[in-house]
Amino acid sequence: MPGKLKAKIVAGRHLPVMDRASDLTDAFVEVKFGNTTFKTDVCPKSLNPQWNSEWFKFEVDDEDLQDEPLQITVLDHDTYSANDAIGKVYIDIDPLLCSEAATVISGWFPIYDTIHGIRGEINVLVKVDLFNDLNRFRQSSCGVKFFCTMSIPRCFRAMVIHGFVEELVVNEDPEYQWIDRIRTPRASNEARQRLISLMSGELQRKIGLKVLEMGGNAVVGYLQCFDLEGESGLVVRAIGTACTLDKISSTCPAAVVPNLSNSSPSKDMKDSLQAVPSTLGCRSTHSSPVHSASSRLSQGFSVSVPTLLFAGMKNRQRSSEGPRARQCRAVFGEEAPGVPLSSGPPTPLRAQTFSSFSPSKSYSRQSSSSDTELSLTPKTGMGSGGSAGKEAGPLKALLRQQTQSALEQREFPFFTLTGFPVGFLLHVGGVVSARSVKLLDRIHNPDEPETRDAWWEEIRQEIKSHAKALGCHAVVGYSESTSICEEVCILSASGTAAILSSRFMQDGALDTEHRFEDTAPPACGFCHIPYDELNMPFPAQLTYCHCCRRHKVPDVLFTTIDVPTEASITGKGCLIQARLCRTKKKAQGEGNATAISNLLPFLEYELHTQLLNKLKLRGMNALFGLRVQISVGDTMLLGLASATGVYLTALPSPGGIQIAGKTPSDLTYEQHVSNMQKKINDTIAKNKELYEISPPEWVEEVIGSPIPESRQRSRIFRSHSESSDEVLELDLSHGKKDAFVLEIDDTDAIEDIHSLLTDAPTPPGFYSCNTEIMPGIYNWTSSLQMFTSVRVFRLSNANLTNQGLNKIFNDLCENLLKSLYFKLRSMVPCCLCHVNFIVAVPEDELIQVAVTAVAMSLDKDQTQENGRQSGDKTLMKAITENEEQLQFPLELSAECPSNPLSSAKGLSEVSGPLPSARAPSVDHSSFTDRCSSWIEQIRLKAHTIRRGSIKTTSSLEKSSPLPDSRSRSLRSNRSCPSSSVAVVKMTPLSFLPGTKIIKYLGIINMFFIRETTSLREEGGVSGFLHSFIAEVFAMVRAHVAALGGNAVVSYSMKECVFMENPNKNQAQCLINVSGDAVIFIRESELEATPSQTQSGNVQTSSNGEGT
Amino acid sequence: MLLVVNTAAVVKMSVELDVFVGNTTIMDKEVYQLWLNGYTVSDAVKVRMEGGVMEECEASADVLLSDTMDQFRTFQMCERLLQNPAKLANQLLFQIPPDRQAMLIERYYAFDDAFVREVLGKKLSKGTKKDLDDVSAKTGITLKSCRRQFDNFKRVFKVVEELKGPLVENIKQHFLLPDPLARDYAAIVFFANNRFETGKKKLQYLTFHDFAFCAGQLINNWTVGAVDNMVEDMDVDLDKEFLQDLKDLKILIADKDLLDQHKSLVCVALRGKTKVFNEMEANFKNLSRGLVNIAAKLTNPKDVRDFFIDLIEKFIEPCRSDRWTATDVNLYLTHYTNSAHILDSFKHQTVWTRYMGVIKSCILRMYHE
Predict the structure, then answer these.
(1) How far apart are CA A1013 and CA B305, in angstroms?
(2) pLDDT level of residue A349 (50, 70, 90 thresholds)
(3) Which one of B17, B58, B94 has the shortest CB-CB distance to A792?
């Protein structure tokens, strides 16, 4: 179905001088969409031209609207020779296709040229009229919202979290086409930019289609990446989490209406009603008692509970093939659905897949891929689960099993989210990761990206099987990445194995289940082990949870997610990095791939050991936001693991680090060892003080359990809590914090210890973390500074040892951090949040490190809790509302043969809720109601105001451009400097402290190439990159301002590929950035005088587009 | 010791590239000043190290070097915008808070008194620019800084030279400068345009601000703009008609009766009020002749250039040698001006007031005891 795209070119300013003779420019503009091009008149002899063009109208398919960018080219008219291009603006019109996002794009855009950078600005107005799309078989997916944010966006509520969506498109890289030899660098760059823009559009559209098919309306945690495979092509791939989101403001009043005694907002699933009738049937049968008040139940479901439930069960079982098949289709697209992986498409490479290899203490899953594990049938051998299930009550087991199976039915029960609604995350198993080394070959047919698909499929299966081995049915905080060096490509995927509540699941009757558990889950719940203690996937030492003292927890927990909001943390956290460099022999093709895959396990092992050591050195016991990056170069492999260490109150206090010397030892040696031991102990003590870690001393006797105090490694079998009579192993010696032993048996180990101790602490006043916010800090101010810093080091000594390399790499990272602290010293006290390192080996002897982060100032005096937004509050409310639980009849248990595996896994969960942990039933409803109506008001105001400003734009524009400096006017009609450019804030976080995001305007996903043939003249490589990054920021800000926004949240720089050739005086750089454009208002203003200040605020934000 | 083995090979590694870009452009005022002063990066690092930033923040020399290089680069990138401050406000490349923008502009256009004294009244031409190394050597200001200051003068001069309207306002509008700085620039432009001589030895004791004050007086009273503010070049050039009219004042010294009358009126008024009465009485004719002759000669551009030197030679020096105090000078000039109004046969009252008002305030400002 078609839509009408309208564009108007208003004016230009600060254009470059194109005619040396007159020092002026005769500019005109070409507006192109698809294959249609319009031109404006030439505005002669002006650097600040006024075109005020008519509305150029393009009648196009909405499919094209999603794929294509609007392309605006500014040119200098030349009567005798060819017109010279000044530069281009690509405008992604996707945000206009969403009814709830932006309605118009209007503002000044930097005119960008890949050779010269920004050359002036152009004022453009763009609108879209969409006709209603009723076509069932449509190819477009307009209206699906995309969010880069890794949690449920602040002004939305998750109704259903459908799960994983992925897509991948491939193409030939224009840079490697034959035509590239004869075209100019500019043409080649532009072809590339355009192609990637097209491919991203296509990718989003396809993912959108999958989301619609699943019954969702949004993608959260959208991660798009490019693989520049060189000769073999260009891959654009994306993953995300499909959700059905509901604007909080719009549903709250309804949800709060008191007469619907039990109606919970989460049942209110309009979208799924049309989209997936079959599933809806099941779901609503189960939830029908709740639904009885809802108007939607005209379909006749409101019959008595037992029958319906029964019917529902059957229904579900019968239809269980349905959703599965559907999902397969969704995942595979045109390909054969459900191809079992083991027999999957033969990969053309001699690939070696290997699974992550983990040190004994870290919770990466160690296993080799095996077909049995890959199969979807549950593992046998967890017999105790069956009995436990019976003991725990058949109904619970049944429900558990339902969740389990629902998730297992999925192709990939993955979630890209790192932050979750309260109560969604039940248990966390540990980090699962998989890597695979592949040899690239040419992509022969761009329409069939099977090979790449199959590769990822393989890895995802691996991850899934790891998660299963950890007793988990889902993977959260999931991400994928690649590192390419010539023809070798390392594919990596990682996530956190977890058990999730079914509350937000769509499939089957699951959403009733949450009535049974975790009305308010205990805050320590997620730390409890999900796996079976008898069949532990790895050697771990378990103790009782230090919070509830009823469940088992591991001694250390590694995760890729953010710190859950409900987690209780002792003290403050800090950024922990493990850095490693390994030399590698130069090799070609298969030999190279083999060499790399042989090195990888060691690299990974050492990174984990380093992380664990550093964690212990800081007296902490858990890592969040773990991100392990492996980068491959010709002669080396780089590994960088970053995470935020914290002390989880629920986990045992970590033991110290003990150094053990070699067995044959002399006196000096002993002395040395004891010296080091002393140093380490001092550091641990210092760190504990620094991070304010002073956990309440946990005394074993307190529980009153009959555990004999024993320093020996005694094993006791005792029965667990009421809920199960399962035998469990308790390793007491660990409970007493026995030291972690480091053996120094070679110089390597000494180096390790040295590097442990050389990590400089953050200077006073600074905190740092790579998660969204630092646990334990709530007094954020609104002052923030997002930045990107890039460093490239050249190793001039070719023959380096591993140690030498390690030291260099370590120093590089440390120095970079030191520089950041110094730069940001004026913001103290402050916290560097979301510190994201990207390492690369662009050339033989180069190491590149790019950091993007945000520094946020803290208010020392004020200790109010700004971090938690009302979104959480509403969720809390939803939980409390659902407290009244249904009493399911027990006889149903027989209907469903319980799956032994899943019930075993569910064990710990079943006994989860503590009566005391129930959320107090405070009446938030009226508060939320008021809040949301304000927001609604603001939204309306924003709309009208923006419309108003659009009408007047053309008249305004006439007066706004600068007069030429030569003009003889008495008073230049320039606007006052402070108001001429709207401030756009940028942050990698999903929120801005002290503000409320009132509207998401759409996703920003931009790709730029910059090239120069006059590197020296542009200030060398640093000057070149500095201005390019500044230009990228400027273009992002301009696009956000044009959408009417005043901030970008969840901003990230995905790619920064820098290449140089100083001898030829050339350099090239590619940057890909993404984020969510939003409108925010200050909370203080919202609280003060809502209606007035808000309209004022919105006006400010709309200023950006006017002037 | 046995086990302390430093296995890390001595490796030379070099930072090939090092950039930091903030969404809000970070600029350190202190580093900015060092850049403006024309320091090289390494000199600036030295100064900063001596300033003690390092101890304050536990930074190493490397960190300081990296930061300084980065900021210098940022300033360099901004320089193009600073040269056209209006652009700085609505450019999109750097997000700089308005108060920072104002600071950047103000400091960029700030100048050293020592430097401006050297070029004040000189033609802002390439020739003058070539001599800047001498100025640099003489004043101890780096050549780079001298060039920036010179280019600023020249840029402002070129822009406002042909604009209509009040000079100070135009400068404020186009260069977004605060009022006092805009006034200083108005003075510089005015001096450059009229090529007033300021470099002679006798003038050395005068500061830039003395001249700037005088320039303000001249601009406000003797230019076309002082009468009609919609005329071209109104504030930059002196009012030709007025200069022509000044010739009529000659009657005050040419007509002997008038001169005597004038003298007696002044003497009556001043008797007993000043210690230097006798000297004043003795010198009256000389002084009056001096002032009126300056007025009469101003039609000649050459004499306009010598305006200040003439004031010194014809009036200030004689007074100073007679040890007049500033109060004496003030008293004398007040009565000298007022008495002329009482002279019946003196018809050029308006011109006289316009002339003497400026002369009086200039002399008072230039009269350092």
Answers:
(1) 51
(2) very low
(3) B17
Q: Distance from first CA to last CA of chain B, Å, rounded?
A: 77
**Per residue in B72-104, pLDDT tens?**
999 999 998 999 998 888 889 999 998 999 999
- Picking from A46, A878, A868, the residue whose alpha carbon sits closest to that of residue A424 is A878
* Residues A504 and A424: beta-carbon distance below 8 Å: yes
Residue A78 pLDDT > 90: no
Residues of B in contact with A118 (CB under 8 A): 92-93
What's the residue count for chain B? 369
**Shortest alpha-carbon distance between residue B28 and chain A (Å):** 9
- What part of B 36-65 touches A (C-beta under 8 Å)? 56-60, 62-64
Q: Give me the helices (H) in B41-142, please.
A: 41-51, 53-57, 61-82, 85-90, 98-109, 113-119, 126-130, 132-139
Q: Can you tell me the mean pLDDT for A200-219?
A: 89
Mean pLDDT calculated for residue range A601-610: 86
**Nearest CB to B8; choose among A804, A1023, A1027:** A804
- Per-residue pLDDT, averaged over A735-759, amounts to 57
User: Which tokens in the block code for residue B242?
Assistant: 């007025």
Tokens of residue A486, six digits? 């010539």
Residue A539's pLDDT is 65
Statement: residue A38 has pLDDT above 90: yes
Angstrom distance (rounded) from CA A386 to CA A388: 5
pLDDT at A943 over 60: no
Q: Can you tell me whether residue B7 is helix, strand or coil? A: coil
Decide: A128 and A167 in contact? Cβ < 8 Å: no
Q: For chain A, count helices (H), then strands (E).
A: 23, 34
Instruction: Kindly report the number of other CB atoms within 10 A of residue B240's CB atom.
Output: 11
Higher-confidence residue: A415 or A894? Answer: A415
A980·B21 Cβ contact <8 A: no
Mean pLDDT of the residues in chain B: 86
Q: Is A983 on the interface with B (CB under 8 A)?
A: yes
Percent helix / strand / coil, chain A, rounded to 5: 35, 30, 35
* Residue B69 in contact with partner chain A when CB distance is under 8 A: yes
Q: Cβ separation of A1026 and B77 shorter than 8 Å? A: yes
* Residue entry with tokens 């002044």: B266
End-to-end Cα spacing for chain A = 35
Instruction: Indicate the pLDDT class of residue B10, thresholds 50, 70 and 90.
Output: very low
Asked if A91 and A44 touch (Cβ cutoff 8 Å), the reply is no
- For residue B167, what is the nearest residue in chain A, using CA coordinates? A970
- Asked whether the beta carbons of residue A797 and residue B12 sit closer than 8 angstroms, the reply is yes
pLDDT at A616: 86
| B residues 278..337 contacting A (CB < 8 A) | none
CA distances from A506 to A250, A280, A329, A337, A581 (A): 21, 8, 18, 21, 45
Cα-to-chain-centroid distance, residue B247 = 29
User: β-pairing, A1047-1061 with A985-986?
Assistant: parallel
pTM of the model: 0.77
Does residue A625 contact residue A988 with C-beta atoms inside 8 Å? no
CB contacts of B88 in chain A (<8 Å) are 977
CB B214 within 8 A of CB B366: yes
Q: What mean pLDDT is reported for chain A?
A: 69
A27 near A73, Cβ under 8 Å?
no
CB A10 within 8 A of CB A49: no
CB contact under 8 A, B21 and A1029: yes
Read off the pLDDT of each residue in B220-235 and give the average, rounded to a whole number. Answer: 69
Q: To the nearest whole percent, how much of chain B has pLDDT over 70?
A: 93
